[in-house]
């Protein structure tokens, strides 16, 4: 782990006298949190929202289910490193990327195969020790034991830079393996190419049929020392995919080779200085990769310094004073939320869209890697507070641009490198756009955005939407995961209505407010659960609210989790459940459920269980806050303490489930501050309880919103009093405009519950059926 540079004595003394918190949090970030267990994060180098994610891969030869634990390429408990590739996902529940793997070799013999990790020396992979690792925002280093090479990584917005220090007595070589990929299998690499250009630049490409079919990616690579000799080798056997037509290639090369299984060997001889390797990528072409390579000047130290400055600035959006473990958890969480959606357009504005054609962004930077089913909940709402406003505008404009280029005419579902994967459910680009618009983020045509949202919500071939529009629910006998889809569509529809209402498009608003009530069509009053219905109107039987099976009634969950997903109208759901007391009893039953006789080992994403609450996956993330909707926020406070203590640690296995491109981290970031966006689009945050002594949001508008906690301790679980700008706050929610105006939110903690605060109906957070419009 990175050593925490403690400054407690001086900071504590100054904090008493100064209203400003001093540290920017850079030294408190540990990128190795989540690299063990099921966090699926990577420890390597990336700039804020950077296009290149340069990180070690410890195992790329896994297939299908075995790849799940290596979704980010690196797993903390692996003993060897296969190499360093240029692209990775941070915390995804599916593996892909791992493009253009580079590995140093030393001496006279240069193996071209990675070898068996159980047999040291059988290939080019190497053993390593965590004691030799350094992981910081924008920087990673490790000593490769077998070749005796110190490897360092840094990255700018569109470039990555490797630095390898070889022993002076051994010849230096690099392996460039275009066969290697995460979630690898025979035939995944449809085509690849390598070219040695006259100026010593190596360029190339590959097309893959992985998670996103037909993804094209190009690279350009330069070196601080001349390449003395090289070999581009094809190791093709029976992996040809005859249905693929190779892209055209140029002839400006000293040597080039193409095929489906290429590895390059680059020889540098004996070196008296470290070898630097600067790399850029492009989804467009090699010329785009070269332009990206030229867009950021300087060598390793210059790029590292610039990226450190960028991270210090990004992390300074939140200032945190908390006990050291929590401070490390929170700053690492903030770091993880600022990795994606990442830059996916070239420096000249070109990018490859979902139609596989090249487009040019006009006045914005195209971004991709949208894990929307996960990130609409808290990740994107957090970015509206902590990321520059233009970044949020870029993301919305990228979503709209993708819809224009989509062959289906709808917004992205789960997109990376501009390519659609059709993974997960819902049309959750819709709440991301609506929430941004409702919060005043501009830079895009709001009416065009609303048209795109409506198009996504009315595209009958997608996910049972034809039945949903006709029947008011998704029919399980014609579409899997119908119960989940019905309630998620209803929420998305509500956000369309909210945006349409603000735009004055009353016909659209009326239509989608009506659709927002469709959750009722899947609610079974006899069992008190959301259930799947058949096209004839009957609920599907048999019914077991604890059953979790992929492709069944629910998406990565069961009736216990999904029956609470009515964020737009929790008050109506609670009435359907029989009122506040019965709702609270059911919430308690969820958290206290005895799972001892249940086996969820077949379900990869079911982790972090507290009864039937599953924190390691997103459908549960808002549930602990629902006690506030029932007038008992003190129960929320106790549950949050239970969740934070059991689900987050400042260790490699410190995330109970996939970080999912920042959603797990965003949940902790909001919860640490004391409030959470249960219903993005409502312009409200439900108040929970803080886990910091003091924190400050340095907002994009130049204002400063401070959270102060008095009496924070393990014994003081409960909020005794809440003051906003010195005045008692009688309600259990904050409004977005109150945060953006700046000011102070003060919590006074105590050991016993305050059962009167937030009890009144007027004190409770937004619900559609009780709100005044």
From TrEMBL:
Residues 1-23 form the signal peptide. One of its GO terms (molecular function) is hydrolase activity, acting on glycosyl bonds. Pfam families: Glyco_hydro_92, Glyco_hydro_92N. Residues 289-750 form the Glycosyl hydrolase family domain. Residues 29-282 form the Glycosyl hydrolase family 92 N-terminal domain. It comes from the Bacteria. Its EC number is 3.2.1.-. Keywords: Glycosidase, Hydrolase, Signal. PANTHER family: PEPTIDE N-GLYCANASE PNGASE -RELATED, SECRETED PROTEIN. NCBIfam families: aman2_put. This is GH92 family glycosyl hydrolase. It comes from Sphingomonas molluscorum.
């Amino acid at each position: 782990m990175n050593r925490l540079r403690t400054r407690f004595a001086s900071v504590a003394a100054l904090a008493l006298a100064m209203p400003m918190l001093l540290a920017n949090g850079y030294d408190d970030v540990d990128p190795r949190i989540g690299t063990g267990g099921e966090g699926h994060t990577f420890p390597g180098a990336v700039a804020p929202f950077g296009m290149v994610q340069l990180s070690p891969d410890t195992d790329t030869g896994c297939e299908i289910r075995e790849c799940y634990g290596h979704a980010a390429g690196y797993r903390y408990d692996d003993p060897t490193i296969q190499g360093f590739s240029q692209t990775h996902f941070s915390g995804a529940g599916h593996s892909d990327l791992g493009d253009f793997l580079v590995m140093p070799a030393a001496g006279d013999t240069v193996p071209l195969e990675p070898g068996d990790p159980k047999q040291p020396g059988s290939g080019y992979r190497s053993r390593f020790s965590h004691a030799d690792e350094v992981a910081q925002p924008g920087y990673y280093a490790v000593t490769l034991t077998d070749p005796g090479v110190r490897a360092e990584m840094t990255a700018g917005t569109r470039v990555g830079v490797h630095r390898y220090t070889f022993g002076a007595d051994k010849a230096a070589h690099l392996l460039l393996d275009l066969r290697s990929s995460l979630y690898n299998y025979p035939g995944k690499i449809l085509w690849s190419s390598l070219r040695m250009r006259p100026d010593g630049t190596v360029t190339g490409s590959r097309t893959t049929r992985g998670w996103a079919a037909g993804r094209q990616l190009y690279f350009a690579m330069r070196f601080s020392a001349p390449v003395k000799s090289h070999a581009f080798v094809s190791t093709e056997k029976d992996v040809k995919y005859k249905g693929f037509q190779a892209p055209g290639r140029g002839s400006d090369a000293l040597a080039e080779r193409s095929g489906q299984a290429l590895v390059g060997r680059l020889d540098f001889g004996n070196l008296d200085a470290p070898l630097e390797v600067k790399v850029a990528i492009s989804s467009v072409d090699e010329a785009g990769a070269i332009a990206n390579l030229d867009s950021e000047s300087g060598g390793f130290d210059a790029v590292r310094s610039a990226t450190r400055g960028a991270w210090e600035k990004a992390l300074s959006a939140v200032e945190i004073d908390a006990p050291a473990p929590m401070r490390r958890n929170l700053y690492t969480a903030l770091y993880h939320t600022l990795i994606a959606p990442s830059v996916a357009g070239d420096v000249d504005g070109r990018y490859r869209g979902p139609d596989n054609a090249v487009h040019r962004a006009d006045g914005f930077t195209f971004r991709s890697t949208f894990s929307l089913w996960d990130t609409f909940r808290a990740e994107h709402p957090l970015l509206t507070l902590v990321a520059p406003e233009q970044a949020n505008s870029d993301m919305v404009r990228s979503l709209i641009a993708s819809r224009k280029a989509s062959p289906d005419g709808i917004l992205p579902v789960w997109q990376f490198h501009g390519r659609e994967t059709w993974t997960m459910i819902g049309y959750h680009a819709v709440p991301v756009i609506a929430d941004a618009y409702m919060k005043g983020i501009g830079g895009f045509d709001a009416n065009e955005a609303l048209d795109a949202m409506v198009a996504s919500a009315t595209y009958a071939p997608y996910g049972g939407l034809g039945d949903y529009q006709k029947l008011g629910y998704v029919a399980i006998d014609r579409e899997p995961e119908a119960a989940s889809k019905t309630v998620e569509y209803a929420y998305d529809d509500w956000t369309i209505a909210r945006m349409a209402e603000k735009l004055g498009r009353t016909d659209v608003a009326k239509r989608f407010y009506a659709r927002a009530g469709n959750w009722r069509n899947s609610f079974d009053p006899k069992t008190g659960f959301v259930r799947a219905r058949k096209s004839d109107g009957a609920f599907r039987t048999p019914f077991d609210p604890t059953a979790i099976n992929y492709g069944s009634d629910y998406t990565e969950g069961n009736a216990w989790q999904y029956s609470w997903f009515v964020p737009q109208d929790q008050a109506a759901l609670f009435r359907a459940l029989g009122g506040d007391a019965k709702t609270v009893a059911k919430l308690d039953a969820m958290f206290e459920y005895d799972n001892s006789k249940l086996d969820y080992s077949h379900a990869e994403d079911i982790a972090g269980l507290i009864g039937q609450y599953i924190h390691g996956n997103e459908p549960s993330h808002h549930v602990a806050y629902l006690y506030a909707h029932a007038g008992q926020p003190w129960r929320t406070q106790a549950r949050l303490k239970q969740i934070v203590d059991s689900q987050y640690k400042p260790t490699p296995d410190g995330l109970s489930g996939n970080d999912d491109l920042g959603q797990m981290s965003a949940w902790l970031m909001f919860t640490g501050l004391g409030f959470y966006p249960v219903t993005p689009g409502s312009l409200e945050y439900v108040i929970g309880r803080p886990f910091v002594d003091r924190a400050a949001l340095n907002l994009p508008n130049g204002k400063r919103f401070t959270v102060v906690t008095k009496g924070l301790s393990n014994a003081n679980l409960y909020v005794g009093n809440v003051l906003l700008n010195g005045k008692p706050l009688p309600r259990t929610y904050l409004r977005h405009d109150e945060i953006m105006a700046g000011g102070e939110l003060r919590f006074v903690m105590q050991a016993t519950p305050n059962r009167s605060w937030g009890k009144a109906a007027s004190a409770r957070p937004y619900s559609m059926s009780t709100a005044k419009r």
